[in-house]
Amino acid sequence: MKLSAQKYAIIAGLFIFVGLPVLFYTLGDAPRRTVLKEAISIATLLALSMMLGQFFLARSNETLLSLFKPPQVQKFHKYIAYSAVVVILLHPALIVLPRHWEGGIKPWDAFITMITDLGNIGIILGIVAWCLLLMLSITAFFRKKLIPRFKLRYRGWRYFHGGLAVTFTVLALWHAIALGRHTDAAMSAFFITVAVLGFAMLAQMYWGAKTPKSKPTSKGAVT
Asked: Other C-beta atoms within 10 Å of 8: how many?
């Protein structure tokens, strides 16, 4: 019975964070481009959706923790997050990559033009969000060395990591909605709804309940 509940949770997660973005993409009215460009768009949308899904792989999701052991959830959290991070960090390069096979401006020139367009608020938001994601990834990777340096140790780390994740998410969504070809009303509403629910769960864990006394395992604890 518990195994079927685990499968149900996995299927529900795939439907929400993979199926719905693909559905909204399919139903969207943005003009289709080359296969490569559309593949990059889908990969970026799914990576952003998976990043939002990380809020539901936290200790605040008591339902998930009742179905899976904390180390299992931590493993999901880590592998999915790092996969999504790679795609999003490569996002600026992937945008200009197709120009290698097109006429006109070269990829590197297009990249420089893009990141120096500081009169575009969407570009500025994207650059700041990219830097925050890089910081989030590096600090998460070296968390075992960083946690002892926080005044409140693991609790302080959770506040830092969670705050950084929330700030990145807000800026990244703003950037995606402002500049994205496929972030129409439906896709934007989906991302915003998931983000708000994720923020609410995180806030409930940090301020709505007593701080857990448990300590992270040697493999790392769920954020």
From this structure: 11
